[in-house]
Write a structure and sequence with these properties.
The protein is an alpha/beta fold. The chain has helices at 2-21, 39-48, 61-64, 83-88, 90-100, 134-147, 182-195, 205-211, 239-253, 278-294, 379-389, 406-420, 467-478, and strands at residues 25-29, 53-56, 73-78, 111-117, 155-157, 159-161, 165-166, 176-177, 199-202, 229-231, 234-236, 261-266, 306-309, 366-369, 434-437, 459-460, 463-464. The strands form five sheets. It has a nine-stranded parallel sheet. Helix 5 crosses helix 6 (134-147). It is globular. The termini are far apart.
Length: 479
């Protein structure tokens, strides 16, 4: 009997350890894709992989309701285009909280911890368009939350890009908020400190590498190969620690040393650039997970940090203005298949994450190049048409699809357009240069994806939108 109890205790201890190891890790789930996995499938993916936090980019009630009773912590999002309305009229903020937050907070409901007000609203590329609205919107949302008696449970914050602070070339100790927004940021972090809200920052070592040819490659990773940057007696061997401590100094100079720091987005893409490969992504995540497992933070911020990976799945309709890699941030493919082995607990015991279950694909048919066609005058135009309206980024750079021969490249372009249009027969015409086949057209390691059946029933609010309308909406968001 004692042995049985001991064995049971070990099982329970192992389960607790497994869950505890994942406590500091969440994921971002974006839906800028031609077809998205159903929220119920996403919930099961998270539970199967012991991921208990998710960050959303909006607050669609139809999506949020699927997290009720799951034990998964949810961060709601408010897009930048809603900030002006929430800032202008407190009643709008009260309505938002009632419609998107409190309706989910019932016994057995959704465990909402944070509301993300805007998304990187102070990016330099926005030319100050959100400077007058973000902070008032934040204050109104938190005030409305507080009036419902939820201020101790739900905190409003602002996901910021790391470009809101800098240190030049002088090391983290020279860090401070950007001079053009310093007064505003000082007010915001003071508000965070008063309300117990966290500072949410998005940090991407990949983007530092991508945007600066002189950036030391090893400094983007965590395996000790980088030449250290010494600042005030502290040696930094990775970009994440140096960047976070630059934020710590910025908070200190703003008089807000008590503000909790959360990594709102961090990750590595697997395609779309010479440095966006599966091998480098695995190297980055392996090091990140081991760092997370230590629960030691940074040299100056020695606390356990929450991290939200970016992202859960690929999104084939994200804007590629920053680079083709934008559509390949997922740890999982568009359909929930894992891309490479890893260990979320950071012990180095790598294995394939558990894939999405019960994924409803459309029919097993592909649109491919009709090699019987002799007149090829219209081929370049049709190829350009397909790629300008679908996602051909996997044909570029160094991924497995970039190695296809010319006929297979044409087939890939035709098929991705066909699948992103929910296998509409008319989307596989291309002046007679394409045909539909039932044999899997995937070539080698290059996947020719199939559309997801749910694309025809994805709901925005309470309304069911046809796939063709969704496709048009997504194009508008890209262009």
């Amino acid at each position: 009997m004692k042995m049985a109890w001991a064995a049971a205790a070990l099982v329970v201890a192992a389960a607790v350890q497994l869950m505890a190891a994942a406590d500091g890790m969440g994921v971002n789930w974006g839906t800028q894709a031609s077809q998205n996995l159903h929220p119920s499938i996403i919930v099961q993916m998270l539970k199967d992989n012991n991921i208990n936090k998710i960050k959303l980019f909006d607050s669609d009630s139809w999506v949020v309701k699927y997290f009720a009773g799951t034990g998964i912590d949810v961060m709601l999002g408010i897009p930048n285009n809603q900030l002006a309305s929430l800032a202008k009229d407190y009643d709008n903020a009260k309505d938002w909280v009632k419609q998107n937050l409190t309706k989910h907070l019932y016994d057995g409901g959704v465990n909402i911890r944070y509301v993300a007000v805007g998304n990187e609203p102070f990016l330099k590329s926005y030319n100050g368009s959100n400077l007058a609205t973000t902070f008032p919107a934040l204050k109104n949302i938190q005030r409305a939350i507080n009036e419902h008696g939820l201020g101790d449970k739900v905190k409003a914050t602002i996901p910021q890009n790391a470009d809101v602070y800098d240190s030049g070339t002088d090391g983290p100790s020279a860090g401070n908020f950007r001079s053009d927004i310093r007064d505003l940021m000082t007010q915001i972090v003071s508000f965070f400190q008063e309300n117990g809200s966290p500072f949410l920052v998005n940090i991407y070592p990949f983007l530092s590498l991508y945007g600066n040819p002189d950036f030391p490659v090893e400094f983007a990773f965590f395996d000790g190969g980088a030449a250290p940057v010494v600042d005030g007696g502290i040696s930094y061997t990775n970009m994440l620690d140096a960047n976070l401590d630059t934020l710590v100094w910025s908070l200190k100079k703003a008089g807000a040393t008590g503000v909790k720091v959360i990594i709102g987005e961090i990750g590595w893409p697997t395609d779309g650039d010479g440095s966006a490969t599966v091998d480098l992504a695995k190297r980055f995540y392996d090091g990140l997970f081991k760092k997370m497992a230590t629960k030691k933070g940074t040299p100056l911020y020695q606390e356990d940090i929450e991290y939200y990976l970016f992202s859960l799945t690929d999104e084939n309709q994200k804007s590629v203005a920053p680079g083709d890699f934008e559509r390949h941030w997922g740890v999982f493919q568009y359909d929930g298949k894992p891309k490479f082995p890893m260990d979320f607990k950071g012990t180095g015991n790598d294995k394939m994450p558990i894939a999405a279950k019960n994924v409803p694909y459309m029919e097993s048919k592909w649109c491919v190049y009709n090699t019987d066609v002799k007149n090829l005058d219209k081929l370049p135009g049709n190829m350009d048409y397909a790629c300008s309206r679908a996602d051909c980024t996997s044909l570029n750079h160094v991924g497995p699809c970039s190695k296809l021969d010319q006929a297979s490249r044409i087939s890939y372009a035709f098929n991705i357009f066909f699948q992103m249009n929910a296998q509409d027969v008319e989307s596989c015409e291309f002046d007679g240069m394409a045909r539909i086949v039932e044999a899997n057209a995937s070539t080698g390691n290059c996947l020719f994806p199939l559309a997801l059946e749910d694309s025809a029933g994805w709901k925005l609010g309470a309304r069911v939108w046809p796939a063709t309308v969704l496709f048009g909406l997504a194009l508008l968001s890209v262009f």
